[in-house]
Amino acid sequence: MKVISQVSDFGLTEGREYEVLEESAGFYKVQLDNGNISYRNGYLFNKGKGGAEDEV
Fold it and tell me: For labeling, which of 23, 32, 36, 38 is most exposed (least CB within 10 Å)?
């Protein structure tokens, strides 16, 4: 699944698309702009448009 950041903070860039590596309890595990992988609260993102490569 892909999500789009709503903020430019917490290692994210507003409007940038991020691949969700894992989802747990309302948090998304994503690779941050600096290359680190971390969980971020789901409220920081909008879900991206669905596509064939998205998981169901």
Answer: 36
Identify whether the C-beta of residue 32 lies closer than 8 Å to the C-beta of residue 39: no
Which are the contacts of 35, defined by CB distance < 8 A and separation ≥ 6? none
Could you give the CA distance from residue 55 to residue 8 in angstroms, rounded to a whole number?
26
Does the predicted model carry a pTM greater than 0.90?
no
Residue 11 tokens, joined = 């290692």
Q: Which residues of 35-55 are buried (b: 16+ CB within 10 A; e: fewer)?
A: eeeeebebebbeeeeeeeeee
Query: For 3-54, what is each residue's pLDDT tens digit?
Result: 999 999 999 999 999 999 999 999 999 999 999 999 999 999 998 665 545 4
